[in-house]
UniProtKB/TrEMBL annotation:
Keywords: Signal. GO terms for biological process: proteolysis. It holds the Pfam family Trypsin. GO terms for molecular function: serine-type endopeptidase activity. It comes from the Bacteria. Residues 16-277 form the Peptidase S1 domain. It comes from Methylobacterium variabile. PANTHER family: SERINE PROTEASE. This is Peptidase S1. PROSITE patterns: TRYPSIN_DOM (PS50240), TRYPSIN_HIS (PS00134).
Length: 284
């Protein structure tokens, strides 16, 4: 259940791309798990944009079944996250919109706004049913680039959303001078305060078009977390979302890793262009 400086050289990223893939919340136990790498994530107070637009996607699957992932407000009423966060593996089907709530900028018992989901739009062709999985807890490789969903909220949030940018085949931050890559989300070890790894790296359209491979510290609960490009002038844009760890190390009931995979913005940009209307709410 979801809780849900330099660009590394090509050889290092190649090893990441060759790693076995599994959902960050359901990696099978390893007989000889590698030692956990030094944790480069740091907690932060989400008081400034773009972090005020990042929040928890809470999913209530039943009285004793609750989970969370990370989502990003990309429009006044639209939140982008990982599709598998809304899939109930117990029932082998998608949850209903009323079971999903978004909490923006949560910091302990404070937040920047909350809203219940009204509907959600899944990627075309996404299939996470057990019959479509190569192994329990994993998803088929061809589904990695489809592991996204856009949630429509019942009411708009008066917050500044985060825009997205499509950068085909980019190798970041090296391909964008002055930019910093960051991954921010609500991890299992700090579920009510976001953590950020600032200064990591990502390759777009790798290992396949529409996917991404990141070298960012992450943990269970950060499924759907935005992979951000932060510019020196204070600008920020989402280039994709992180959906799973690779070579995960078990930490309690969760997994942590220094590398991961996800969905590049090119996979969902057309849907966002269609769904997200000009802002009608003055941002804070």
């Amino acid at each position: 259940m979801p809780q849900r400086g330099r660009v590394p050289h090509a050889l290092t990223l190649g090893r990441v791309l060759g790693a076995a893939l599994a959902l960050c919340l359901a990696l099978p136990a390893r007989a000889q798990a590698p030692a956990a790498p030094p944790d480069k994530r740091v907690p932060m107070e989400p008081t400034a944009w773009p972090f005020t637009a990042i929040g928890r996607v809470n999913v209530v699957q039943g009285p004793a079944h609750r989970s969370h992932c990370t989502g990003t407000l990309v429009g006044p009423r639209h939140v982008l996250t990982a599709a598998h966060c809304l899939f109930d593996v117990r029932l082998d089907t998608w949850v209903k919109p009323h079971q999903v709530h978004f909490v923006a900028g949560q910091a302990r018992d404070l937040n920047g706004g909350t809203a219940e989901a009204e509907a959600f739009r899944l990627a075309p062709g996404v299939d996470l049913r057990l019959a479509a999985r190569p192994a329990r807890g994993a998803i088929a490789p061809e589904m990695i680039g489809r592991d996204w969903v856009v949630i429509t909220l019942r009411q708009p949030l008066a917050l500044r959303p985060v825009s997205w940018i499509v950068l085909p085949n980019a190798d970041l931050p090296g391909g964008r001078p002055g930019a910093v890559v960051a991954l921010a989300g609500y991890a299992a070890d700090r579920p009510y305060l976001p953590v950020i790894h600032r200064g990591c790296a990502v390759r777009i359209d790798a290992p396949a078009p529409g996917q991404l491979a990141d070298l960012c510290e992450s943990m269970s609960g950060e499924s759907g977390a935005p992979v951000l490009v932060l510019d020196a002038d204070g600008g920020a844009a989402l280039v994709g979302i992180h959906t799973a760890v690779t070579q995960g190390v078990r930490v309690g009931q969760a997994y942590r890793s220094a590398s991961g995979v996800g969905v590049a913005a090119g996979s969902f940009a057309a849907a966002l262009d269609e769904m997200v209307k000009p802002e009608s709410v003055k941002p804070k």
